[in-house]
Amino acid sequence: xLSMLLVLWSARTAWYGxxxxxxxxDYQRAFEAAEALLLDAELDIRGxxxxxxxxxxxxxxxxxxxxxxxxGGTTRVPLENADVPVFLAQLSAQPQRCIDALCAKRVGRxxxxxxxxxxxxxxxxxxxxxxxxxxxxxxARYGQYTGAQxxxxxxxxxPILADRSAPDTGGWxxxxxxxxxxxxxxxxxxxxxxxxELAGLTPHVVYRITAAAFGRKPDTLVxxxxxxxxxxxxx
Length: 235
Hints:
There is one protein chain. By secondary structure, this protein is an alpha+beta fold. It has one domain (about 1-230). About 25% of the residues lie in helices and about 15% in strands. It is built from 4 helices and 5 strands. A 5-stranded mixed beta sheet has the order 1-2-3-4-5. The termini are far apart. The model has no long low-confidence stretch (mean pLDDT about 80).
């Protein structure tokens, strides 16, 4: 009897170890995919292709989608201060405050990946829904605007980034456009306390990038955020 119990205990311990290792590996793959989405979004903001060539000078590679470099009528990041107010008003008028993965700053709760969840308050009017953002025309897939390749059978890309079978698979990113004041360059205009100073921003905006990647297992989801500022170099 004791021997049988020891065998069962050993088998259960081995099974639990495999389960933990599998979950950790799936999380790491999703984390890597989310990091790749953040980098892809940075290229999108800078107006560069995945190979580093500027969209303004390099043109589109042969066979590229019409959306690469945000061509074909796709919404673009504003380049001049005068364009920012109208641009943000257009974004704010949308149900999820986003068009083509460019978004106005979130209202209310900022950790939208936690809402609604057990123990949290219900979503208030105007607050964004992370899963409602996961759709064409609202979020962006990897390489959608930069031309980054997903690979083929001989040279496959990251399996998570290549999975686009459903809205809640693969990965997405969104770019919030956050204005800065003109009178005191470098201060966030809609923050309660002006603490962060940046100079050389044209237009006077910074960006908050949110990337979400689903693992291969049903309960794996990684969400990463970063702030991104793009000062212009002096001539």
